[in-house]
Model the fold of this input.
Amino acid sequence: MELADRAVGFLLSLISLSIFTYYTFWVIILPFVDSDHFIQQYFLPQEYAILIPVFAGVVLLCLLCVFVGLVMLKSKKKKA
Amino acid sequence: MKRIIKIITLLVAVSALWIGLLQTSVLPHSYTWLLPMYSIVSLGCYGLLMVGVGLMRFPTCPHEAVLLQQDVVEAKEFLKQRGVDVSGSD
Done:
């Protein structure tokens, strides 16, 4: 049981560290690299560095609202 | 109320710093535009990292779990003798 917890925790920290390094590379280091370096093909165009977090934030907000709405509906159904 | 004022003051200070950075152009312009987005993403990453590390280091106390189960059994017996329904369904 605690092994599953440890595995999930390890996976979460790995995901967060990889997202952080990828984003740091993308936003800070990549403008300094020449445009014909081989590493440029591993990164999307720079506009996506803004679009993807904004899109993820909007999706998160929508999911939050849906969750709140579902909870309110369920509580109202239980009371009636 | 005080907490909201504190949060708003912090937000105003950070945005003033950002607009000041924009005007005086200490950093290159493209970097200054991306700075708020970068800080939000890194804050989210930091939160996720703390959650992961906390999950990994969570202490389980198996000895206390056994004692707790014994306490639950004792309490159920006690309450059943007094006539309270302890079948455990909602």
